[in-house]
Amino acid sequence: MLLHLTNAPRDYAWGSETLLAELEGRAPSGAPEAEVWFGDHPGDPADVVGGGTLDAVTGGTLPYLLKLLAAAQPLSIQVHPTLAQAKEGWERESGLALDDPQRNYRDANHKPELLVALSERFESLSGLRPVAQTLQLIDALAPTAAVVVLRERLSAEGDVLRDTLEWLLDGSAGEAVDGVIDAVVTASRGDAGEWSDTLRAIARIADTYPGDPGVVVALLMNHLVLRRGEGVFLRAGLLHAYLSGLGVEIMAASDNVLRGGLTPKRIDVPELLSLVDTAPGLVPVLRPAEEGAITTYDVPVPDFALRRIVLDGSPTSVPVDGRTMVLATGGTVRVEGADAAIDLPVGAVAYASDDETELRLSGLGEVFIASPGH
């Protein structure tokens, strides 16, 4: 069975007013358009062209959620639990209503995710930077009293990143937050050498979230710039935030998010710190294959798999195993299954049920193929 899926963009405040419209070749709606969900998640199941929603077909059992994501402003800094942590947290909060503002866990699943850039530049904060490198970054700031305090904290013994996160987010940092932000903004206006791009990115965050402790948390994180077709995998426990750009995102079917700044929403600091992995290090960028080839973005989880195919006009047969989605992201694409075919507009999905074993793709364009992992 082959189904044509669409969905309406979600109007989160951080969404772009232009990126999704430009991708789909339509006029902007005039409102922020942040995410388009293609899945059977009860929060927003995809629409089936002709009537109904995908959850009525799948019973809400898809292990993954595929999205288009368009960010004009930074998303909140966040972390996701492991499967064991999610199960324990869900059980612990079983007495709370799902809409209770004190609830942290919306389900019992983990939420690893993969983002692949569609825009020529996609900015994110991904993981905590090695402390020695952050101290080099701090050297680019004027040594004001607040900057000196931050440097001293990062030069202490023990798990200084965890201690600094707690200091920033529980309110203990006080006026030091504003002082560090001021120093970052000032430094971003000059030449800070290798740190210039990072400081300008954090200064832009400060423009959106003035006085937010998350701006200083961002100073501790890797500033990652993806080019079109490049991806980043975000495992459980990894602190991260998307800053700007258009991308394809796929994740385990979960809504579990613990926030760590850049948000007016509640931050449960003890719970956040119980999940975050403060081991620092660079997050590897997943590179695309040469044009015309199939790129597989390898991820170490069984919930999902993602491939990118650039179609050059020659028909391409793709074996599929399990409930599969084909998302068109450029050009003109036709998807054929055993008994049906769909001329797929950019920004829409062809969904193949698990009785399909092979899909035939034709046209000139680009598609992403999502499926369960192994």
TrEMBL record:
<dbReference type="InterPro" id="IPR018050">
    <property type="entry name" value="Pmannose_isomerase-type1_CS"/>
</dbReference>
<feature type="domain" description="Phosphomannose isomerase type I catalytic">
    <location>
        <begin position="2"/>
        <end position="130"/>
    </location>
</feature>
<dbReference type="InterPro" id="IPR014710">
    <property type="entry name" value="RmlC-like_jellyroll"/>
</dbReference>
<dbReference type="GO" id="GO:0004476">
    <property type="term" value="F:mannose-6-phosphate isomerase activity"/>
</dbReference>
<keyword id="KW-0862">Zinc</keyword>
<keyword id="KW-0479">Metal-binding</keyword>
<protein>
    <recommendedName>
        <fullName>mannose-6-phosphate isomerase</fullName>
        <ecNumber>5.3.1.8</ecNumber>
    </recommendedName>
</protein>
<dbReference type="InterPro" id="IPR001250">
    <property type="entry name" value="Man6P_Isoase-1"/>
</dbReference>
<dbReference type="InterPro" id="IPR011051">
    <property type="entry name" value="RmlC_Cupin_sf"/>
</dbReference>
<comment type="similarity">
    <text>Belongs to the mannose-6-phosphate isomerase type 1 family.</text>
</comment>
<dbReference type="InterPro" id="IPR016305">
    <property type="entry name" value="Mannose-6-P_Isomerase"/>
</dbReference>
<keyword id="KW-0413">Isomerase</keyword>
<dbReference type="Pfam" id="PF20511">
    <property type="entry name" value="PMI_typeI_cat"/>
</dbReference>
<dbReference type="InterPro" id="IPR046457">
    <property type="entry name" value="PMI_typeI_cat"/>
</dbReference>
